[in-house]
Task: structure prediction
Amino acid sequence: MIRATPVLRLLASVGLALSVGVTASAQPSLNPDMAPPAGAPDPLPAVLRIIDLPYLSGEERTERRVFHGLWTEADLESTETLARAALISGAYAHPVFDRDGVPPLLRAQSLVRSGELKRAIELLEQIDSNEARVLLAESLEKLGEFDRARAVLQPVLADLPRADRLSDAQGIVAGVRALRLQAKLDGKPASEYNRMIGLLSKVHQQIDRLYWPALLLEAELLLEKGNRESGTEVLQQVLAINPMVAEAWRLLGDTQVDGLNVDGAASVARRLDLNVERIAPDRAMPSLDAELIRARRWMRENDPDRAASFLTRAKAWYPRSRDIAALHAGVEAMSYDPARTERAIEAYAELSPGSPLAFLRVGESLSERRQYAEAAEYLRRAIAMQPNDPRGHAELGLLLVQAARDADAYEALSRAQELDPFNVRVANSIKLLEDLRTWETIESDNFLVRFRPGLDGVLAREMIEPIEAVHADLVDIYDHQPDFKAVLELAPDNQWFAVRIVGMPGIHTVAAATGPLIAMEVPRIGKRSMGEYDWLRVFRHEYAHTITLSKTRNRIPHWFTEAAAVYSEEAPRDFSRAQLLTQALLNGTLFDMREINLAFTRTDSRPQAYAQGHWMYEFIASEWGESAPLQLMEAYAAGEREDAAMTAVLGISQQEFFERFQEWAYRDASSWGMV
Result:
């Protein structure tokens, strides 16, 4: 059910063809002792060539094998090479870092990655190198010591022109990291980003095409700006040059989680496990990066208990990791218990009292769950701690766009754009909000209908009476009157509609509801439109979302709000849907209670998800009565998770519900004459 994306092809060990100045002919052979673990891409021919150059000494050859992740067992007999390999692989808690003979910078890097920032700072203050200074400044920033971080960066920034002039790849990368942190601390203008990309391009295009740290940093910058496609392509280049780089796999896993590709995320996490197992085969050391990916994946699947289990496992090895502590605060926010959330934030503050990261994670977590007011509060607290960091402003602005608070959204997004003019979603949303200022509005008893001046106003005026009738009907069905007037926006084309909903073009549907906002594409034929459709039926579906989200304080499971919306359409099940459901029932491919929520995010599984969700809603109403779905909604509003809500209202667990549903579905399909 998952498309063969470039990432999944990478995980399937497909070799990547990169422009590195070496043709595919006469490809050097790979020493079996250097073979990367299963799941990694084949090394580039250019990498094998520079390792096999005849004039290299044994020490130089070992150094290159380690740098490119192709070390042999013999290479790791040295303490220093083992430490380098452990850092690349993500085994940050490897006992090698406690041995004598480990270079201080490598030990400091392991301490930073492990979260032992104060110990790392003590060590870094004694090292006279730009790389150490940048790492020191980054560590101070994580503690919230922003002024000290600024001071440490100054010599690195002053030395960057020299590194550029001498074509010093390592020095340039250190300088770009310094520029990046300075921009975050001080809100530097767009020219700094252009300069950073230009310097990194010089490294991997003119100085050393195989110097993967420059590519890795470029990928991080691209992903920060919301350019997921280009960032992913650069990460693939990194892994073709060195298949063991844990930081690259971690970023790749994050893109899979962000795209709700849970299979891709699981594959990346397993790949990170293999990295650590390869470097520490006799230990039970988890991959910190893998556990963070898994925790985020289960957060996106709305399962905080499973997310917390991976954080707990990682914390046993990395007790002072800020990433773990901040993400734990985001998980606790999913309980909808402010006291639990504040305790988690306080635990993070004990590690980094001046850092806003925990507030950001809580804000992001609540924002995804459409807890608009609560999320905005935490994001504003993050902004207060670090006003020059664009992340808090951007997340707040995008949240307020979803909440239809356009004036506040514009203010937050404008500040985000001042700090980061290259964030694509921010730029798109600002253009949309500016366009909205020219629109007209018709106000009725329960709606604000907005439209672009012109022909769209004809439809808008005709809508008022029918949508007020729908309002009365659905309020009666769900026994709930929202305490706000819903905003109905008539999008002039599909691109405008998509940006309104997610900040990016490319949503292949005609309508969506965020709760207080319903956006619908004007039904028309044209190149930029999805075509004509029954707008009143679609509106009825979307307004059912508005009411059920309001009734449950936006805590209703995804499948259930979609099921209620389809049920609210009051349209008969057509033959194609009956056939689809019967085939899934007989083939054993009905979605279980976890799979169905994910199925709505995938184009190929979405039709079954809508049809099956509706069927399960009918099952509840048939077996427990028409009031049972409303009682479930009340349980969700109180903060109950789905299993607890079903147990309380229906008297059975989620698993029992699904088993009984399948039995009922067989009888129901038989009554259609389909079995």
